[in-house]
Design brief:
Blueprint lengths: L1 H11 L3 H6 L3 H13 L12 H19 L2 E7 L3 H6 L6 E6 L3 E3 L3 E2 L7 E11 L10 H5 L2 E12 L10 H6 L6 E4 L3 E2 L3 H10 L1 E6 L4 E6 L9 H8 L9 E3 L15 E7 L6 E6 L2
Parallel strand pairs: 1-11, 3-7, 4-13
Antiparallel strand pairs: 1-2, 5-6, 5-11, 6-7, 6-8, 9-10, 9-12, 12-13
Helix pairs in contact: 1-4, 3-4
Protein name: Hydratase
Organism: Leisingera daeponensis
Keywords: Signal
């Protein structure tokens, strides 16, 4: 997976314009140092094109693999209209998921976990086979998805306050990849019924006291969360069995609240109305 991204990056570097905008090895090294130290970083490929940003992302992913583990899937970001409007984007952005970022439901961790830590209600699709690459509708895609997994993404906006936040700079830094909490798999047994449930479910993010931070229908993510996979396919992503796909946030991102103990997300309308939670140390 990462080899193909780096090959595309090398191809992009053949033009003088790309060479000027794709991050240098020194810039990647400085970003990784900031990332590991959990301190604000300088933007990669500032002012560059989306092609430049994806080139920088591939180089950054190769540099992060020794720390985050191998790439195990993809993520779509800015999948809701409010998120796109906030960052001046006209469509989602794409990033990667790494093995070591995944935590189990009920995990406890120190806050902050990054330079600019954020919490979001998300969802993960588990790819069953590469037939998903020929799908054109959510129902067709779900025939090649083995399970839905609740997911709280613990993102890191990473960039220093004076840096430009744009679709390109967010893409170049990997779309805020840091940590995530996975819930138990919900098997896909009837693709048509699961497609309906994903659109109609109610996703609620709550703080530890039960206060509602976000409440949104499943259709808040691109009309149906599975459309995140179809959008990634439209950008040339080739899925394989076992890949995880993060569909994106169902509402605004929130910083962890000191003394609030953690957050939970409920997926009312999915089988069993699953609940997932994460706890923050005081």
């Amino acid at each position: 997976m990462l080899k193909s991204l780096l090959a595309a990056c090398a191809l992009a570097l053949t033009s003088p314009a790309a060479m000027a905008a794709c991050a240098t090895d020194a810039e990647i090294a400085a970003f990784v140092d900031s990332y590991l130290a959990k301190t604000p970083a300088q933007a990669l490929s500032p002012g560059g094109s989306m092609e430049d940003a994806l080139c920088s992302q591939a180089k950054l992913a190769a540099a992060l693999e020794p720390h985050l583990g191998v790439v195990i899937g993809y993520k779509a970001g800015l999948t809701s209209k409010p998120a796109q409007e906030r960052f001046g984007a006209t469509e989602p952005v794409q990033g990667l998921l790494f093995q070591n970022m995944m935590l189990e439901n009920g995990a406890t961790l120190d806050a902050p976990w990054g330079a600019i830590p954020m919490v979001e209600a998300d969802l993960v699709l588990v790819v069953a086979d590469d037939g998903i690459n020929s799908a054109t509708t959510p129902e067709e895609a779900l025939a090649h998805i083995s399970a839905i997994r609740p997911f709280i993404e613990l993102a890191d906006l990473t960039l220093a306050g004076d840096q430009l936040f744009s679709a390109e700079s967010i893409t170049a830094m990997g779309v805020g990849t840091r940590l995530g909490v996975l819930g138990a798999p919900v098997p896909v047994e009837d693709p048509a019924e699961m497609s309906r449930m994903l659109e109609e479910m109610s996703v609620t993010l709550r703080d530890a006291a039960g206060g509602v931070l976000v409440q949104a229908p499943g259709r808040a993510v691109l009309g149906n969360p599975v459309n995140a996979a179809l959008w990634l396919r439209s950008k040339g992503v080739e899925f394989k069995a076992g890949d995880l796909i993060s569909a994106g946030s169902f509402g605004p991102l929130f910083p962890p609240r000191a003394g609030k103990g953690g957050v939970s997300v409920t997926y009312a309308g999915l089988p069993g109305d699953p609940v997932i939670e994460v706890f923050f140390k005081e």
